[in-house]
Amino acid sequence: MSGNTFGTLFRLTTFGESHGVGLGGVVDGCPPGLAVSEEAIQRELDRRKPGQGGPAATARKESDTVRLLSGVFEGLTTGTPIGFVIMNEDQRSRDYSAIKDVFRPGHADLGFEAKFGLRDYRGGGRSSGRETVSRVAGGAVARAFLHSLGIVVRAATIELGGIPAQARDFDGAQDRPFFSADPEAVDAWTERVQAVKAQGDTLGGVVELRASGVPAGLGEPVFDKLDARLACALMGVGAVKGVEVGAGFASARATGSANNDPITPQGFLSNNAGGILGGMSSGQEIVVRAAVKPIPSIALPQRTVSRDGEARSITIGGRHDICAIPRIVPVLGAMAALVLADFVLLQRRLGR
Amino acid sequence: MSGNTFGTLFRLTTFGESHGVGLGGVVDGCPPGLAVSEEAIQRELDRRKPGQGGPAATARKESDTVRLLSGVFEGLTTGTPIGFVIMNEDQRSRDYSAIKDVFRPGHADLGFEAKFGLRDYRGGGRSSGRETVSRVAGGAVARAFLHSLGIVVRAATIELGGIPAQARDFDGAQDRPFFSADPEAVDAWTERVQAVKAQGDTLGGVVELRASGVPAGLGEPVFDKLDARLACALMGVGAVKGVEVGAGFASARATGSANNDPITPQGFLSNNAGGILGGMSSGQEIVVRAAVKPIPSIALPQRTVSRDGEARSITIGGRHDICAIPRIVPVLGAMAALVLADFVLLQRRLGR
Amino acid sequence: MSGNTFGTLFRLTTFGESHGVGLGGVVDGCPPGLAVSEEAIQRELDRRKPGQGGPAATARKESDTVRLLSGVFEGLTTGTPIGFVIMNEDQRSRDYSAIKDVFRPGHADLGFEAKFGLRDYRGGGRSSGRETVSRVAGGAVARAFLHSLGIVVRAATIELGGIPAQARDFDGAQDRPFFSADPEAVDAWTERVQAVKAQGDTLGGVVELRASGVPAGLGEPVFDKLDARLACALMGVGAVKGVEVGAGFASARATGSANNDPITPQGFLSNNAGGILGGMSSGQEIVVRAAVKPIPSIALPQRTVSRDGEARSITIGGRHDICAIPRIVPVLGAMAALVLADFVLLQRRLGR
Amino acid sequence: MSGNTFGTLFRLTTFGESHGVGLGGVVDGCPPGLAVSEEAIQRELDRRKPGQGGPAATARKESDTVRLLSGVFEGLTTGTPIGFVIMNEDQRSRDYSAIKDVFRPGHADLGFEAKFGLRDYRGGGRSSGRETVSRVAGGAVARAFLHSLGIVVRAATIELGGIPAQARDFDGAQDRPFFSADPEAVDAWTERVQAVKAQGDTLGGVVELRASGVPAGLGEPVFDKLDARLACALMGVGAVKGVEVGAGFASARATGSANNDPITPQGFLSNNAGGILGGMSSGQEIVVRAAVKPIPSIALPQRTVSRDGEARSITIGGRHDICAIPRIVPVLGAMAALVLADFVLLQRRLGR
């Protein structure tokens, strides 16, 4: 498959390029009778919109207005596919000759050219971060479904530019700059972003996701483990280079007696497992983290080659973000929501 | 889907429980005309066999003899499904009353019970590490296919019990204790394992995978990124709690100028990307790491609950490994090989 | 899966209801470098447009204007998903109280209600024939791909209202009333349609499909036989109640010596197999037929029940076709084209 | 995909060649807690066994003994994959030089060679009817699942050698020669078979399937219609050249008023729809028919070509059936059971 469909029973198929006519998608498999509206989807889209998020953000202006074309009747889902579109508006006419025949370091250009033999070089085409607008729209439908079952997925930034957050306030994070899990971290992160921006450079960070209300038993015991699917979902977002569950890489350095989470009649006494054991949810909160690399489009000169293999130096200006955070945060949340919605439906097959 | 099939065009379907009659699988989609034999598969199986690997290993004895039932004619694959079985031999009659009605901390028991309402409690059933024997057999076929194209996947241990390897000798690792990437690390790791074993405790570690000969352009730009599928494949192996590509979590702390890999007519000057950009291979060596948690079956007393929710203390004896390393190493290599074989076939659809 | 995606490597996902905002779809997996335009798709759409096809057709007026949103750059496909929409225009405000709470005989109403618990009752919603507009658009892309390989799929009517065509002129059929394979049949069919229309009744017929230029070896030997997938594709179009390949049901009455197609160095001497042997194409022309039932919306009174299970009489007026032919003809052709495009891509995996 | 897996949530993956080591498969997705045994599966296998069914049958002797390897614990399914094998016994050493380099008319040889470039020519390899033993075993598990829900699938022969059955006694058919729906037809069919056998020729026929107890709403409204999936399932069995639902091809000749099934508070007054409307079950009995072509292996001389394209005459002796009926009857029943089991699980996703 070409990888533009995500999920088995709760499925999102997306399309659209950065500078094409429009983007959109189809949510298939959403159960009937669920309240879904353009407004609810728009709220999620507004959270990743260009121009949000302060000093780290791009200057491109898009209203990112979603239009629902099907699947909702009298305010409720009907069980039929939910088609939606987000038309591109700010397709500013530009001179692409600087990047048309050059492979930008850290970008998908080279692989795209090798794979397809041609590419829509305007703004990254299908490999642009703009592609994620459809993920967020689809994720909003998944969130609505999960919400009806008491499952809530929240994402927050816990590290930026090497500076870790200390607190884990996921509720407050939703309205905080950088979607920061820690109000104390915001100032230091802002300074770091501004300093790096002034140097023409960019930054990365770490996003943590938490899902509460997840019943025990979601996920399949062998290949389709809940953590495997979450890892696929998060690593499938551009710029993510690492995923860990619960204690993650730290558990590799612990002993079994320290890493195991004791169980009592009142519940688990710790959550090193991140709420997933043997690929299935344990009933604890799901905890997953994603490492986000710095934006590869930097204003400093870089060595690269042209399509003909000749040496070139490239300096990338344009309307780029300094850091994929905060805009990637709602995208990661959307992907986790899609995974959970899918497993909820898969679980129902067992009639339990 | 129930998650016992892996892959799209190069597919492995597996079955079998730890203490059932036998395990096995079906490799579907392997191209015709490829030399495949029981001997070649057996060589891979022998690398993960119980009783190998020195002080960290289980005492259970299984010959793990694979039998090919179909799909190979006169020594060559025919393009039809390759069925294989590995019969269980050492299904030692034991008293399972200690674990039958108790959830072992760190194990899949609780999720399994919540999911299915009943479970084959003998030795973990389908959630046993023994399940991976079928992965290794299927991976051996994938390796043979990749080998015919000049693609080689190697896995080695780069950290054990918190002690990192310094060297990265992947060739030598294949015949070294712990499949260690560093001959110097073996003694320290052996001491660490023996000390922890004496305490009744267990250990984890980190495995690194490298794939050479991978052409540029494998992987799909959006959901089915090469790194996303690798993350799914590795996180889908029991005990893995984290996956990272190239610089991984460290890239989240770097600036763009430091993290980008400069390109020259002679090739890339670094490989922080781990050979994957925008979800597609770049032509560089693929580098991925998996964090392996300590074995949860420890000989020390642990707090847990019974199926009725009553408090219990459990001490797990039996024939268990102290560390999933080294036996997990060929399993992780097999999974990476399956992913790459699948993407090679997917790429062919483009006629390029 | 919810059944709104068709195909494995060449995939069409569709959405949209008869009286919703719009319909559309996503073609994923189309190889790059193929000339595709709105004009080419529009030509196919115009062939199934309401208001075409003479006396058998509906009075609803829709321009059925397709808009491409992605996947085509500078006139060529890029290998990324091709999103398209067709907005609904003639959503005439009507009084649906007559059918809102009543199950129309021969329609999907009852199953829809049983399945989803609610339905978009306006004009059949997702179960309307209008859904097929997205199939034809997707099929147009498949046709363009097949055309680049010399494969041509043509569909024509060979029977209507019980009156069989004698000739098999598939070239001429494309511009003929009813897409008739026989110019001689047109007058008799027209009379039959007018007579039945005057009675408030409806008609069915038989459509034959032929695909030329199909290389030998397409199709998979066991479950995914070429004829199995074609049967699924055609039977998946509303109103189709039977599918047969080559001699079809007549072969059940023949002896082996009469039914086998002799092979000579100059080719086959007959084509009872319809170009498919053992589920794979033989290199001969593919021949498949679909039986189309009469339109169930008739102007005569019928016995039925309400949602509450009470007896009702229903007489259906409205803007309905008298016969699914001719509008179903391009739909069936589109589905066959999608199947063949998918198998062409699947075949490439073998590197042959 | 390579087409050796059938189904979405209730999945059967099969492997094995006619003269290989063994055949088998994996049933994945069967819900837990269901009583399944080797004996129950064996009973279904015995119904298609070589040597059964009187004068129409092959002389090859196989005990077709199934062995369950996994997925059943203490007599109940566990929800994990059910692996099974049937070893080949009667792999009589023969001289295949007559068919090794020749394409048998009416067989898959030519397509197989074109597809894969090589083939296991012994007895048809993967394209042999022997492949269906795995379908019947998998279907037996599906039947057990359906039985637990009150759904019963029965298949019977309603026409053989052009001689139609008059009665439709599906209960009695299960123990009757030819699985005939009509006790009166048996003698005529026996005579027809013997006469044709004496001529060195072969016969076809028609099989009807009926499924009772199917709740309304199974099937998906667009591509994955219940009838589309049934058509795929049945057309995917070797020798089937046509499939029709309810009135089938006859409905193409009826008017809407005659073809529609009136609905009353007491139920439908007819069943021309064959229990399926708009791709979803209506609650009526499901009625489907499959046209089975004559066995292509005939003892009469036939014109064909060699792999080198040279003219040849071939006369096929050996241990072949005269008619695919009756052995194909349990195979078709198995496929229909697999389709229904899959749709039952798919329906559960809706939580209804």
Automatic annotation (TrEMBL), chains A, B, C, D:
Top-level enzyme category: lyase
Record's GO cellular component terms: cytosol
Pathway involvement of the protein, from the record: Metabolic intermediate biosynthesis; chorismate biosynthesis; chorismate from D-erythrose 4-phosphate and phosphoenolpyruvate: step 7/7
Cofactor binding note: Reduced FMN (FMNH(2)).
Membrane-spanning ranges: 328-346
Keywords: Amino-acid biosynthesis, Aromatic amino acid biosynthesis, FAD, Flavoprotein, FMN, Lyase, Membrane, NADP, Transmembrane, Transmembrane helix
GO molecular function, one term: chorismate synthase activity
Positions of FMN binding: 126-128, 278, 293-297, 319
Cofactor(s) essential for the protein: FMNH2
Listed EC numbers: 4.2.3.5
Gene Ontology biological-process entries: amino acid biosynthetic process; aromatic amino acid family biosynthetic process; chorismate biosynthetic process
Binding of NADP(+), residues: 48
Reactions it catalyzes: 5-O-(1-carboxyvinyl)-3-phosphoshikimate = chorismate + phosphate
Coiled coil: none
PANTHER family named in the record: CHORISMATE SYNTHASE
Subunit structure: Homotetramer.
Family: Belongs to the chorismate synthase family.
Function (record text): This reaction introduces a second double bond into the aromatic ring system.
This protein's name: Chorismate synthase
